[in-house]
Design brief:
two-stranded antiparallel sheet, mainly alpha, 4 strands, 21 helices, 48% helix, 3% strand, 3 domains, single chain
């Protein structure tokens, strides 16, 4: 009895914890429903004046394919498709998204999404590609641990740089680290300032690097005042992007090139900068950028997420909040940003709300002429797959297993089918809704191993028992 009495408080605590968790889950589900409904209301608001007849909702097969590609990065397995089509539960679309968000597929897919956004240089610079494994491993860990978006950005902007150096780039990289963000920008303050403002704030301030911005209010002093936050970072030696990095914490000024003018660190909105003794100027910058009061941060992230799921942003291009690129639905963008910040910058919350909306679930088939204007979001625009999605989907369809090659999967000419495939299908200038294919890509789909090998071998496991060959027409599939 004595032991039993001792267990009562523990049982009580566990019961309370379970109850609180249940209440929190219900509250989150309610918030998702409310935001999804508001998305639909705001999207549909102008349809009356525009005489829009929206497309019907997608059927289950179309929705599942779309959700798998957007959340998980590849098409669904046949078994999952059959189970989903046989499921008559009214909440099955919500549940499949919830399930995907708890899988490694989500972690890998959104690691690809944000890595591409943060380090686009990897597409064209072979040296930068050798830096990517440790950055990707670091990003995967953030998503696996459900780290909030503002904290991910804060960790990138404040990562220690003093005494940091890379090992031989052709050997195994060290511990996961976001330092490649700095190395890819060549440790130059102007490059880091341009990338930081564009990726995290949606401001293309680089146009003011050499002169006042011709179409916006940004001045040359604004650019270099922002660049001064990175002015203390220095690269030593002649090892290029692999060189040793140091940082001078007390350097808070920078000289504007080809002038005698020196400017101090300055936020883009003119707020006073407060420094912490013994800390990098980047700490002050990270605190300002990720603040809930920052007018750019939450809106830019919400717009990027919207662009991921719809192929175009409410502000389009997604990273250009300029005077000549107004949002198509400003009220909606403000609401998404507000809710994103209110829910502690939880990316999964935004994903759940967007995918639960009728706007996201509409068919991509155009059933009325009034659906032609993409800014009205009256139907889902068809989108080309990214190279990563296409390779993963082909592997899923053919049963091909691609071993993960940490060392050389980004290297040109590496003896790695995935690396060669990503190189071939890398279209730098494409937007998701305007994907173009090349002759080389078509030939790769027809003749390149493993696609040709898996689809045309008589003993291929993907063809076993089918009594026919799979056809490959060389087209980049849309969804």
């Amino acid at each position: 009895m004595k032991g039993s009495n001792k267990s009562l408080p523990i049982l009580f605590i566990v019961t309370i914890a379970v109850s609180l968790a249940f209440d929190a889950a219900n509250s989150m589900a309610d918030d998702v429903d409310k935001l999804a409904a508001e998305i639909d209301r705001m999207i549909e608001k102008p349809w009356g004046a525009e005489e829009v007849t929206p497309a019907p909702l997608a059927d289950d097969a179309e929705f599942l394919r779309r959700a798998y590609l957007d959340v998980g990065g590849k098409i669904p397995p046949v078994s999952e498709l059959r189970a989903f089509l046989d499921d008559n539960s009214p909440d099955k679309r919500r549940r499949i998204v919830d399930d995907l968000l708890e899988t490694p597929l989500y972690v890998t897919n959104f690691t690809n999404v944000w890595t591409t956004a943060m380090i686009p240089e990897a597409k064209a610079d072979i040296q930068v590609r050798f830096l990517m494994p440790s950055f990707e491993a670091w990003m995967r860990q953030q998503f696996a641990d459900d780290v909030a978006y503002d904290e991910i950005v804060r960790r990138i902007l404040t990562t220690p740089l003093n005494n940091s150096n890379n090992r031989n780039p052709y050997q195994q990289q060290g511990a996961p680290t976001p330092i490649a963000f700095y190395q890819a920008k060549q440790i130059k303050p102007e490059n880091l300032a341009a990338a930081t403002s564009r990726v995290f704030l949606g401001i293309r301030i680089e146009c003011a690097q050499c002169h006042d911005h011709p179409f916006d209010h940004w001045k040359r002093e604004d650019f270099w005042g922002f660049a001064a936050f990175f002015g203390g970072i220095q690269r030593q030696g002649r090892a290029g992007v692999f060189g040793r990095i140091i940082e001078l914490f007390d350097k808070r000024k920078i000289k504007i090139p080809d002038t005698d003018k020196v400017v101090e660190v300055a936020y883009l909105n003119g707020d006073d900068v407060t420094f912490t003794p013994g800390k990098s100027t980047r700490d002050a910058l990270a605190a300002w950028i990720t603040s809930r009061e920052n007018p750019y941060f939450a809106r830019t992230a919400a717009n990027r997420m919207w662009g991921h799921f719809f192929g175009r942003g409410i502000v389009n291009p997604i990273d250009d909040f300029g005077a000549d690129t107004p949002p198509s639905h400003p009220e909606l963008l403000d609401m998404l940003a507000s809710e994103f910040a209110a829910h502690d910058f939880d990316l999964k919350f935004l994903i759940r709300a967007i995918t639960a909306s009728d706007t996201y679930q509409r068919s991509s088939r155009q059933t009325h002429d009034s659906q032609a204007d993409a800014d009205l979001f009256a139907r889902m625009e068809t989108r080309g797959m990214t190279p990563q999605q296409l390779f993963a989907s082909l592997s899923q369809a053919t049963g091909y297993f691609a071993p993960f090659n940490v060392q050389n999967r980004f290297a040109v000419g590496a003896n790695d089918p995935r690396g060669r495939f990503l190189e071939t299908f890398n279209n730098d200038s494409d937007t998701p809704t305007q994907q173009q294919t090349t002759i080389l890509q078509a030939l790769s789909m027809i003749d390149e191993w493993p696609v040709h090998d898996k689809c045309h071998r008589a003993d291929s496991e993907s063809n076993a028992g089918s009594g026919r060959r799979l056809s490959v027409d060389g087209k980049r599939r849309s969804y």
